[in-house]
Amino acid sequence: MAEGKTVTTECETRLLESVPTGLLINGEWRGASAGGTFDVEDPSTGKVLATLASASTEDALSALDAADGAQASWARTAPRERAEILRRAFELVIERTEDFALLMTLEMGKPLDEARGEVAYAAEFLRWFSEEAVRDYGRYLTTPEGKNKILVQHKPVGPCLLITPWNFPLAMATRKVAPAVAAGCTMVLKPAKLTPLTSQLFAQVMVEAGLPAGVLNVVSSSSASSISGPLLKDARLRKISFTGSTPVGKQLIAEASQNVLRTSMELGGNAPFIVFEDADLDKAVQGAMMAKMRNMGEACTAANRFLVHESVAEEFTAKFAEAMKALHPGRGTEAGVTVGPLIDGGARKDVHALVEAAVTAGATVVAGGAPIEGPGYFYRPTVLADVPNDAEILRTEIFGPVAPITTFSTEKQAIAMANSTEYGLAAYLYTRDYTRMFRVSEQIEFGMVGFNAGVISNAAAPFGGVKQSGLGREGGSEGIAEYTTTQYIGIADPYAD
Ligand code: NAD
Q1: pLDDT digits (tens, 9 = 90+) for 130-171
Q2: Considering the chain, what is the average pLDDT of its residues?
């Protein structure tokens, strides 16, 4: 573990005490009800950080009452007013970067520097959608027959249920809340039970920024399905936006079909990281470190399979393993720490089982390969070489600091290997050849491609996947469209008698 200065516990305690522990419903923080309470743990120590009210079904329905009650007036607010609330929220989040970063490090485990990076990324959605709020254009045109007119306008889709995962506690919330606010939707946000504190603080900031009561309701809960089940059955809800695993996403799509809801689904990934024979190998290793190790590998965009041309595999593997061995696991608040713990004991067990199965199937451990003893759920940064093509680890979302490497001999083979998954979120290509970048990008079935780039998330870009990685896009100009519905008004020929 890395040695270094620990951020004072006093500072942590003060921050934790400032986070609201109740449910935000209709502009008021309410205490625990029949749902009771639940604890939030620090994954690097296993210690309890805070105890929150756990929303019950009745609380969820009260939150929807509030969202539904606020919808009509919120939809009529001036886009500029919504934009300015988002802009103020952006500034408040940036001002409180250190608080948000520390809170995420405490409840999720990522190193402080990475948490600061997430604050900047997350805040950008508030700024981006403050700019988009006033630019949601419709259109007006004459029919091809030349007589009648066509008017197309966008309207907010209505009350939304937003469900977020634990891995990016702030960014996953702002990526949904900001476009919903910009479009004029009201919402019920249910954060992941493992990392709800960041959303609780974020909701407080949104209230401070001037968001009217009922627009954003937050129902943290230890029982996700007792929130989502009843809300998805309620005809007042018009949309669900979910980020999380593919199995839960599929279940929610099925439930949402009952009321034919608009759905946005940001689901799992199995990103190939393809290194061609002409790649700059040092840059490829740098990119691999970012694509694999950001968030300890707990990212939907994390490079999950390293497909390396056979002529450069040995050199790439040696350099990559060296970089992985130089990392410093530890509590994310400590200086010098570059890798935090996994989110819980179950996650670490699953990661280790995949490594063991790969080794049994013939893979070689080049770095790491085992859990780290002691408090917290740490796992050694791991590189596996010679991983057989049919190994389970190449088909499963690893969600941990493990890099399996396999080889290919032709571009055609690399494309076929990349596509042999039910997922289609992110893919990474390392090559100096721009024509190859276009050729391969056209043939691989992924919603996002990193070309000589290990991190591609950006508020201005459409984030999302194809196949079982999801439906819809977050960010970019596409992001706000997920929260609007299109109305067409057919206008009779204004020249007719
Ligand atoms: P998860 O599916 O277990 O949980 C996500 C959210 O859904 C949490 O809020 C959880 O409480 C809730 N949930 C769980 N079971 C539910 C149910 N039966 N009904 C309703 N809600 C339920 O996922 P996770 O472990 O929190 O996050 C990791 C997963 O999220 C990975 O698969 C990762 O790839 C994916 N992810 C995707 C993106 C993306 O943009 N595509 C981004 C981040 C994470």
Answers
A1: 999 999 999 999 999 999 999 999 999 999 999 999 999 999
A2: 97
Residue 422, burial from CB neighbour count under 10 angstroms (0-12, 13-18, 19+): exposed
Which residue's entry shows tokens 């690097």?
Answer: 44
- The domain ranges of the chain are 9-267, 271-457
245 lines ligand 1 (CB under 6 A): yes
- Among 205, 174, 199, CA closest to 93: 205
pLDDT at 9: 83
The pLDDT of residue 2 is 42
Alpha-carbon dihedral 279, 283, 285, 289, rounded to 10 degrees = -130
DSSP-assigned letter for residue 239:
E
* CB of 166 closer than 6 angstroms to any ligand 1 atom: yes
Q: Which of 266, 334, 411, 474 is catalytic?
A: 266
Dihedral sign for Cα atoms in the order 284, 463, 127, 11: negative
CATH code at 271-457? 3.40.309.10
Regarding pTM above 0.85, the answer is yes
Q: Does residue 295's CB lie within 6 angstroms of at least one atom of ligand 1?
A: no
How many angstroms does the Cα of residue 421 sit away from the middle of ligand 1?
19
Span from the CA of 242 to the centroid of ligand 1 (angstroms) = 7
Torsion of CA 411, 416, 421, 426, to 10 degrees: 30
User: At what angle are helices 434-443 and 411-419 packed, to 10 degrees?
Assistant: 40
Dump pLDDT digits (tens) for 8-50: 589 999 999 999 999 999 999 999 999 999 999 999 999 999 9
Sheet holding 426-430, edge to edge: 364-367, 382-385, 402-408, 303-309, 271-275, 426-430, 448-451
pLDDT tens-digit readout, 222-267: 999 999 999 999 999 999 999 999 999 999 999 999 999 999 999 9
Between the two ends of the chain, the Cα-to-Cα distance in Å is: 84
Q: Which ligand 1 atom is nearest residue 168's CA?
A: 43
Q: Give yes or no for a contact between 337 and 329, defined as CB atoms under 8 angstroms apart.
A: yes
Q: Does domain 9-267 have CATH number 3.90.226.10?
A: no
pLDDT at residue 374 in the model: 83
